[in-house]
């Protein structure tokens, strides 16, 4: 092995004998996409699809300029710049096969807090055809209790007063679209790639609410000209740890300070409505469809909810990762029974999809022993996830008289998890959630009032009024708080 090599454009020539490297001319890449929210997922998914397209050598129009809106993005901004925006994607197969590839589709990154005008210029540039987003549910700035835009957010108030000093995505999009309108340029498409249902509709609703307050005429232009395709995105992408950096160092003597690890599976289903052209992504396997709803419902209710079922129960028991949960037959069976008995009946049939095969494939994906996806990542932001992933299934079963046992057990387990702070191995449980304090406070009143947690109505809506549900919930709360171990309770239910 030669001496350690830093990942950057200059070193690609020497690296390419060992690792697959970009073969297109990165210097000639135009920025066609500005992407806000560069994390692991964007880099394993959209940026990878674009990279594959560029590898076909038909177009150089779709380079990606990343944007970080938060001060917390400073570190990645520095790393990406130092590495000429290159990073390594490590694809871990269940068999142990590993594919390692340097991805070159990102050709710039702007830290918005330092240079907000540069972000606006980039978004307003004639070459930019798409602004895509992975800003998480919280980034959409809606009020969870009524789904409307939250004008009380101080950042939103500030940018409404000072449109030329944007802070949130809404300030940036509105101001950049204004610049385009004034320059007589066509708008860009706003492409949400967040894991939320009807993500494009959500982006449209929130942006229009903001723009309307700022400039009604502009809002009308946005409504008439900008498109917001809904998309379903899928690729399991655990948090990068030192393991990946060590792997590259030990195997290739390569120093990459921010690689990405993911599973081999990848899927992107997109509504084909782009205001200003789009990359021909069908050439690399992206599915363009008139309506993504069936795909997103299936994915969110089975994959994401399945993850949460394993994550919450596994975290309580002390299983560190999703694949370890799947190695435990009780956890694997519990999750499958939740899918079979509670999700499948309410999903009905989805045209063109074999749900049994889909569930089998999820089991295989979750069990991949080389994707050590931490239960901590899955449990993070459960307050944004469970109301979308699991509670609708429960509500539909309550309405139809279907089984509610598994979903109810998970809500009781979530309460127990939010209350305890330690797992069954006496290890601390770190809760990462925007509602962390509220969750803990409500859950810790459970001993005096077994339904206390359900009083968080912005999460549970009116579930507390349904006797069939609360009877079951109380039964599970009592069982969990007897502390005989979650695993034996789950075993008793399967
Ligand atoms: C996970 C998702 O965050 C979660 O709870 O279920 O991040 C999941 O890994 C992705 O949606 C897979 O596409």
UniProtKB/TrEMBL annotation:
Gene Ontology terms, MF aspect: oxidoreductase activity, acting on the CH-OH group of donors, NAD or NADP as acceptor
InterPro entries: 6-PGluconate_DH-like_C_sf (IPR008927), 6PGD_dom2 (IPR013328), Mannitol_DH (IPR000669), Mannitol_DH/Oxidoreductase (IPR050988), Mannitol_DH_C (IPR013118), Mannitol_DH_CS (IPR023027), Mannitol_DH_N (IPR013131), NAD(P)-bd_dom_sf (IPR036291)
Domain of life (superkingdom): Bacteria
Residues annotated as transmembrane: none
Keywords assigned: NAD, Oxidoreductase
Domain Mannitol dehydrogenase N-terminal: 32-283
PROSITE patterns: MANNITOL_DHGENASE
Alphabetical GO biological process terms: mannitol metabolic process
Ranges where the Mannitol dehydrogenase C-terminal domain occurs: 291-480
Protein family (similarity comment): Belongs to the mannitol dehydrogenase family. UxuB subfamily.
Protein's name in the database: Mannitol dehydrogenase
Species of the source: Arcticibacterium luteifluviistationis
């Amino acid at each position: 092995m030669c001496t350690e090599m830093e990942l950057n454009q200059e070193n690609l020539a020497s690296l390419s004998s060992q690792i697959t490297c970009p073969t297109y001319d990165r210097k000639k890449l135009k920025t066609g996409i500005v992407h806000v929210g560069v994390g692991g997922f964007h880099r394993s998914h959209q940026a990878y699809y674009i990279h594959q397209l560029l590898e076909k050598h038909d177009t150089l129009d779709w380079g990606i300029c990343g944007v970080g809106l938060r001060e917390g993005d400073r570190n990645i901004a520095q790393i990406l710049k130092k590495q000429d925006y290159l990073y390594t994607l490590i694809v871990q197969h269940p068999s142990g096969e590993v594919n390692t590839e340097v991805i070159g589709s990102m050709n710039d990154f702007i830290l918005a807090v330092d240079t907000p005008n540069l972000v606006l210029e980039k978004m307003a540039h004639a070459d930019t055809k798409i602004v895509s987003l992975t800003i998480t549910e919280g980034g959409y700035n809606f009020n969870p209790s009524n789904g409307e835009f939250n004008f009380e957010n101080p950042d939103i108030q500030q940018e409404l007063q000072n449109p030329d000093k944007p802070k949130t995505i809404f300030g940036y999009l509105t101001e950049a679209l204004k610049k385009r309108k004034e320059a007589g340029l066509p708008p860009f498409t706003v492409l949400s790639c967040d894991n939320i249902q009807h993500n494009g509709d959500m982006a449209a609703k929130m942006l229009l609410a903001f723009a309307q307050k700022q400039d009604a005429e502009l809002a009308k232009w946005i409504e008439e000209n900008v498109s917001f395709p809904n998309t379903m995105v899928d690729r399991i992408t655990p948090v990068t740890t030192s393991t990946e950096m060590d792997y590259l160092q030990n195997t290739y003597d390569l120093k990459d300070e921010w690689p990405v690890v993911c599973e081999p599976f990848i899927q992107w289903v997109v509504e084909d409505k782009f205001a200003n052209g789009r990359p021909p992504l069908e050439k690399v396997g992206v599915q363009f469809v008139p309506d993504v709803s069936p795909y997103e419902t299936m994915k969110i209710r089975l994959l994401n909810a399945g993850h949460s079922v394993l994550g919450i129960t596994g975290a309580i028991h002390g299983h560190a990762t999703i694949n370890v949960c799947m190695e435990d037959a009780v956890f694997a069976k519990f999750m499958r029974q939740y899918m079979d008995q509670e999700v499948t009946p309410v999903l009905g049939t989805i045209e063109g999809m074999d749900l049994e095969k889909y569930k089998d494939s999820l089991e295989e994906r979750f069990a991949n022993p080389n994707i050590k996806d931490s239960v901590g990542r899955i449990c993070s932001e459960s307050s944004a996830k469970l109301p979308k992933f699991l509670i609708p299934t429960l509500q539909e079963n309550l309405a139809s008289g279907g089984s509610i046992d598994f979903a109810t057990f998970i809500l009781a387990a979530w309460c127990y998890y939010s209350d305890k702070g330690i797992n069954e191995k006496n290890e601390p449980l770190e809760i990462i959630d925007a509602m962390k304090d509220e969750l803990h406070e409500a859950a810790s009143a459970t001993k005096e009032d077994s339904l206390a947690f359900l009083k968080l109505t912005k999460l549970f809506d009116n579930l507390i009024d349904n006797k069939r549900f609360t009877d079951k919930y109380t039964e599970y709360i009592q069982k969990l708080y007897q502390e005989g171990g979650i695993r034996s309770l789950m075993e008793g239910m399967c």
